[in-house]
User: What shape does this take?
Amino acid sequence: MQNVLSLLSFSDGGWGAALAAGTLVTLTLAITTLPIGIFLGLTIALMARSRSPRARAVATVFTTVFRGLPELLTLLIVYYGGQILIQRLMAAMGYEGQLQINAFLAGVVAFGLVLAAFSSEVWVGALNTIPGGQYEAGSALGLSRWLTFRLVVFPQLMRAALPGLSNNWLTLLKDTSLISTISLVDLMRQTNLAVGATKQPMVFYLAACVIYLLLSAGSGLAFTLLERRANRGYARG
Amino acid sequence: MTFRDILGLLIDLDLLDRYGWRFVEGVGVTAQLVAISFTIGGALGLLLALARLSDNRLLRWLTGVYIYFFRGSPLLAQLFLLYYGLGSLRAFWTDLGLWWFFREAWYCALLAFTLNTAAYQAEIFRGAIQSVPRGQREAAAALGMHKAITFVKVVFPQAMIVCLRPLGNELILMIKASAIASLVTIYDLMGVTKLAFSRSYNFELYLWAAVLYLLIVECIRRLWAVLERRLTRHLRAGDLPRPARPGWLSRMAKTALKPNA
Assistant: This one.
């Protein structure tokens, strides 16, 4: 037990600081991806409801592909495919030499696409809860379509979408562990390194699981507060 | 033009000759992995759901912790915990005579996926069982039915209908998640792809894998929709037996008697 604690401590020979740094990378990756994925998801949802058949087709293909592909495969396709694409582009512009795509960037793009596909379903569901009268009332007040969306529809939308988005966030947080396979030193990768150095897989993988659990629990709390805030107009009292 | 020529326009035929069969095998491994863990996980999940709903507080708390753990941490971490973590306790497993199990990546992956999907399915079953109205139980009790019989004959069938859709989603999530098995040296569809890519450096292979995964997921989705329609056909008003169509004689008589058109 003493031994285990010293392995996880922040002092010399302990891996506490390394795990904390990895946790920070995991959180940074997830928090960077979140707004990108969610707003891309909202765009896809609006496209899925648009009058243009072409926009609807794009939305359908997008969600089918990125909901159907394993996240690991999406990540590798973005990582290796992006590399090849950039190399070809650079070659076409006369630049020779090796270019390494940033693993963090690949992660943000890949997880952003996946999150967009899943959150667009949530947005569509939320958009369906808003009665047409709200749009009509907005235009009767002389608001432009954009202002109607921003001032009238969006606040109500957030309220309906939050529970679904909170699920999306938890999935994203867990999915980010896949980035360890393309050598970004996140929590999972840091754990692998610790296991390699200390030969204590039980301790460290269990510790990683517990850290992920704590992150989930913490963000669950944050979402409860957000939901309370989004529902404040509906509170009784 | 033969079929092969047309195929050649789309994909690299050389690559297909070299790795095509391996991909087929990979799909088979993925299918096995998912089928086994999803089925056993379902049975375990049902037991967990019953324990979660039981009157015993300790049992409720224990299953709660189990479900929270497996739903709250990444499957990747769970897989590594089982394969590398439990796999490091060699002396212990040898004493128990279970070393053959924890030595193999295949069994560890099966175990990790089973335990993981069991936690998710437990929540699905719990929600579904709770969605059956109380009145159903009360009515069965009023008829003098035993609690166990009430569950098997009244509650369970209605709960299963509610479960169908989320279970289908869980199956699809499992198919996607099974790609992680490739990280512990299992040659499922993803593992085969990575192996072939490391030998040929041909990016096309990843696109093959993408198309195959999409095909599998789409097929399962449609099959599940058919299954769902079939199992809920007694619940749809539109499918009530229609009045019998008049026979040919009465139809002819009607046409004959119709005023001139």
About this structure: The mean pLDDT of chain B is 89. Chain B is about 80% helix and 0% strand. Chain B has two domains: 36-185, 187-230.
